[in-house]
Amino acid sequence: xxxxxxxxxxxxxxxxxxxxxxxxxxxxxxxxxxxxxxxxxxxxxxxxxxxxxxxxxxxxxxxxxxxxxxxxxxxxxxxxxxxxxxxxxxxxxxxxxxxxxxxxxxxxxxxxxxxxxxxxxxxxxxxxxxxxxxxxxxxxxxxxxxxxxxxxxxxxxxxxxxxxxxxxxxxxxxxxxxxxxxxxxxxxxxxxxxxxxxxxxxxxxxxxxxxxxxxxxxxxxxxxxxxxxxxxxxxxxxxxxxxxxxxxxxxxxxxxxxxxxxxxxxx
Length: 267
Known about the structure:
By secondary structure, the chain is α+β, with helices and mostly antiparallel strands. The chain folds into two domains: 45-142, Type II secretion system, protein E, N-terminal domain (GMP Synthetase, Chain A, domain 3); 148-251, Beta-Lactamase (2-Layer Sandwich), CATH 3.30.450. The protein is built from nine helices and seven strands.
């Protein structure tokens, strides 16, 4: 099946039979695809299953960081730097006959005294590698940003929700308070919760209303640990619960008015 078709051959076959193909059939189909690409372009075709060392995510990501081939060039022309030696740059290309892509890559390589060797790669393999690199870069950036925050910067001051503590004792509804999901104290608290969760490598964040307080817990390595206390180990005031939950919904593009059914969101 040609690379220009929207549906890869494996996906097309699985759609026809309405179930996932066995691994051996998937590999056989992929070999047929690589053979087709080799015949079509007259170049060696490869993929992560055939040569995993060429598709090392850390290695490719490092070359992109050093701009051996910039990320913009890769996404514009569907190309990947696969291997670099002192004199050779192996490049995976979805369309090795693209004059614009080849001209730009050759120019970049010549400035580094490198000779380009082309390999044909499938469109879906290119996209999977790019997606994994972007995910890794995003995770790295978030981790570095949160690592730069001190424990003191992630603490919640006693005076931040001082009025709310009083209101909570009087049973005042948060909706009538100046503190809501768009208020500075709530935004700062949610930001600190996310930053600390990233810094500590937590897999889950639990916002748990108690009888008179709000408990925040992180799950890490299967264990739940409580976080975010005021002085004297006092928990956060309960009447900020709705605001905190709504803030998480807002940044996850969820419906803040829906409270009866679960919702899935993404930051």
